[in-house]
Amino acid sequence: MSEGPVIRVQDVHKAFGPQKVLQGLCFEVARGESLVIMGPSGSGKSVILKHLIGLLRPDSGSIEVAGREVPRLRPAGLAELRRDMGYLFQHAALINWLSVYDNVALPLRETTSKSESEIESKVYSVLELVRLLDARSKFPGEISGGMQKRVGLARALVTDPEIILYDEPEAGLDPEMSASVSRMMVKLRHELGMTSVTVTHSWPCAEAVGDRVAFFEHGKLVIDAAPAEVLASDNPRVQEFFAVPK
Amino acid sequence: MNLITRVGATWLRPTIESAGFAVSIGLQSLLTLPHLPRRMRATLDQMHLVGVKTMPVVLMVGFFVGMILSLQVGQQLATFSQQESIGLIVAPLMALEMSPLITAILLAASVGSAMAAELGTMKVQEELTALNVLSVNVISYLVLPRVIALTLMAPLLSLLVTWVATLGGGIIAVSQLGLSFEGYINNSLDSMRVIRETIPVPKYLFDGLLKATIFGFVTAVVGCASGMTASNGAQGVGQTTRSAVRNAIVLIIVLDFFLGKVLM
After folding, report:
1. Which chain B residues have a beta carbon less than 8 Å from that of A79?
2. What's the complex ipTM?
């Protein structure tokens, strides 16, 4: 697990107009490790995920992912990086006019030269993994929010990424469905051994999937430790934030 | 100075930015033309949507415009006892000017707005971001089929509009102006036999179809580019759709004037 950091964020600053969202953020994630990012709304959690995958560029600082300095990558380099990364969107972001099968097959059809039979075999295997093989012919509008999340997960996994980023995987789901998605994330991690970064507001999700929990506030890292240590922290802001879930 | 700064920040800059973005989308869609064989299915689907779904309304409007033109101009000509010339006016005027314009405006209102709404919804629901993250070329995957479909279908629809408008004009020529249908059609056909000096093609048809092709391209590019800049949820998609239709219609009319001057 500790081969050295696969993600390294150093002194990253980002502002949108007058609003400073990230203020000198630093953290690292080792290969195979699962980092959970928590914090109040507007603390820069989703913004840092978008930086990791090159959707946003920092105003200053360094973001290194799998040995590549993300802000300096040109479009071809970014496309290559993104092929090694999976991203689960808050609301799954499935293409509405494509079936579950076609949504999952999309990145393979568009970015690889695999034959349709190879694609079919790969899509079937990831749909099996997220237990959605029976729903492959359905359209996103015909399945529940939890199932849509799992389709999003299958789509993120179909290219065999080294790193997976989860943006609020439990958002919009009831507690039972949220727990089911968390279990799925733990299972995938054990079976595929991927590095992951998860942004969440849910402590049960953080506790279930995280090796470490990083707590952000005002774009700064307040604490970065194992879940149990975070809960035991004597930092008043951390205590206040986790008072309810605890 | 304060006023100038405010106008620059609130109107000029966003206008130049969105125009620049639309030009960039148009150029990128041309650069992805080699992807067309891979996008044939999506392009045919879009052509079906553009052509078949809008054909009834476009043809109906064309038919009535032909009748209006024939009635109004025919009555003016009748005051000089020149109503026999109506066939020489309706067909070339429709082919060169009215059909491309009417077709383009109707396509901007129906198809261009739908493109803006569709891509705008995808933008606000993060589907476009998801395609980017999946390394899918959004221009090739979403824009190219729409641009090609509208660019090809606009001249085809314009041709059909010319045909039904001439027919509508003929009905008025017979029923209101007391002309023979055969004479009207012969005059119409004669007027269309004018050949361009530079290229040996029927001038009015060629110029009209060229205009319709350009208008189709512009409508699709404006619709797609507007959709791709949508923000602020459903309200933002609504605003984007409105601005797509408004911008496309303004551009079509301005372009029509300059193309008319160039092609004269």
Report:
1. 135
2. 0.86
